[in-house]
Amino acid sequence: MTKPRILFMGTPAFALPALDTLLGGSCPIIAVVTQPDRPAGRGQKEVAPPVKLLAQKSGVPVLQPQTVKDPSFLEKFYLLKPDMVVVAAFGQILPKMIIDFPPLGCLNIHPSLLPKYRGAAPLNWSIIRGEKKTGVTIMLMDEGMDSGDILAQEETLLGDEETYGQLHDRLAKEGAALLIKTIAQVISGKAHRRPQDPSNVTFAPRLTRETCNINWQQSAVHIVNLIRGLCPSPAAYTFLDGQLLKIYTAVAQPGPADQPPGTIGNAVADGLPVAASDGHVILKNIQLAGKKKMLMTDFLRGYRLVPGSILGSTISK
Question: In this structure, are 222 and 126 located in the same domain?
Answer without folding.
Answer: no
